[in-house]
Design goal:
Ribosomal Protein S5, domain 2
Length: 201
Amino acid sequence: MYYFSIDKTSVAEYKDRGSRFIAYSYPLKDAEDFKAILQGLKKEHPKAVHHCFAYRIGLDGNNFRVNDDGEPSGSAGKPILNAIDSKQLTNVLVVVVRYFGGTLLGVPGLINAYKTVAVMGLQLVPTIQYPIEINYHLEFNYTMMNEVMIIVKHYNCTVLKQDYQLFNILEIGIPKMRLQEVLDKLKELHTVDVKPVGIRL
């Protein structure tokens, strides 16, 4: 009913035989945000030889990406992802920027360097436990606003969208472990129309 992630960014550095590896860790909600972050780091480190990364998003285990950015296959992105997975995190991006020091490290040396610096970076930020939420769309007459908001606050639901027109429209994230209780309470307010939208992290 919970997942683990981070809510802050961190920077860690590791050196091996002259090469510098700088790990940037970020909380990440979707792949679109990732592109902007990577572009920003490439601008910040134009002289770096590699910008390798891994991210994992969501709960099903299928939404992840690794990139070696020119390093030997499997020597950078995978070790970074292993660092994320060893802490059982999701919604996390780690980018490791490498400045080459003139000495080749070999594949075992690269795997060690990328994993080490990614682990160091993730140790600098606290792991946060978040409830998994199921999104619901609520529609109701404005006279019901107070009753609806009492339920939303009492069960720590997240208000995602609000729209006040002829009818009030709310999209809320209901903690999965309290889902049935919240739906039962909303049903007691007979004039509230409740529709499921999907799972949210």
